[in-house]
Specification:
It is built from nine helices and twelve strands. By secondary structure, the chain is of the alpha/beta class.
């Protein structure tokens, strides 16, 4: 089965409603597909066969939805073990989850923001270390969009850096979430980028959002990527180098060719900054 091995790679989310079109894509139409393991553990029948067909043609990455790393309930060990079996079976090298919580005496069906405190750092880092032990690999955690902050003794960037250090994990940098948060909470997205540990960035996500107002953006994953988010992705490539980058689209699906045009733009942006990096290396050689 193919394995995601190149930093210069553009992916698309594997959604069940897109499967017929994904199966009909040419080989190489995208560099990888990303699935949510929570939705595929134990799935057989027609969907299981379709996943096997896609896995045989395209590298897969995995992005968890419901592990609730920041929650107070015990980690779901059955989910972790099922996730490990799935990612091992499909040769998935990159696994990530959200830096948030999603359950509290039951599933909340949303990604809730964590308090930015030293206690929360220690709590979530310990749970990340357990998850890494069960999965047998280093994982990445994603910065999430949030609209109300429960308590901020630390700035968001300081909280994220502390979690990465304490847990010994990587970062999935969601560029759209960074942009949305920067507008909604009034901070400089590029100053935020400047303080990220670039060596910890395993991959990127980009997505569309809804402009509710000039100072309120809603992370929807239901629209094309906005110009400001494309520019912020280019800024990240310029600062940190190219990494695997996924286009997220969860509803309001356009024709597949429109999604492939956006993944093509990711590829073109990656190529531009990979070429720039090579030129700089030659100049300083």
């Amino acid at each position: 089965m193919p394995v995601l091995s190149s930093p210069a790679s553009a992916g698309l989310g594997l959604r069940r409603s897109l499967i017929p079109e994904l199966l009909a894509m040419d080989d190489g139409a995208v560099d990888f597909l990303e699935l949510a393991p929570d939705n595929w553990i134990g799935v057989g029948g027609r969907f299981g066969e379709q996943l096997a067909q896609l896995s045989a043609r395209f590298p897969l990455s995995a992005h968890g939805l419901s592990l609730s790393l920041g929650g107070t309930q015990p980690l779901d060990m059955d989910l972790l073990r099922g996730t490990r079996e799935l990612i091992d079976r499909h040769g998935i090298a990159l696994y990530s989850e959200h830096l948030s919580y999603a359950s509290d005496d039951g599933h909340l069906y949303d990604l809730m923001p964590m308090p930015f405190t030293d206690e929360a750092v220690r709590h979530v880092a310990a749970r990340i270390r357990v998850a890494q032990d069960v999965l047998g690999r280093r994982i990445a955690v994603e910065n999430v969009s949030y609209y109300a902050a429960p308590y901020q003794a630390l700035a968001e960037i300081d909280f994220i850096r502390a979690v990465l250090d304490e847990a010994g994990c990587d970062l999935l940098l969601d560029v759209n979430n960074l942009y949305v948060n920067s507008i909604n909470h009034g901070y400089d997205a590029r100053a935020f980028l400047a303080r990220l540990p670039g060596e910890r960035i395993a991959s990127y996500h980009i997505a569309g959002h809804f402009d509710e107002d000039i100072d309120l953006k809603v992370d929807t994953h239901g629209a094309p990527v906005k110009a400001d988010v494309w520019q912020l992705l280019a800024d990240a490539y310029r600062r940190f180098g190219v990494r695997p980058t996924l286009l997220e689209r969860d509803f309001n699906f356009p024709p597949l060719q429109e999604l492939l045009a956006e993944t093509g733009r990711i590829r073109a942006t990656q190529a531009a900054y990979a070429d720039r990096a090579r030129l700089l290396e030659q100049v300083h050689a």
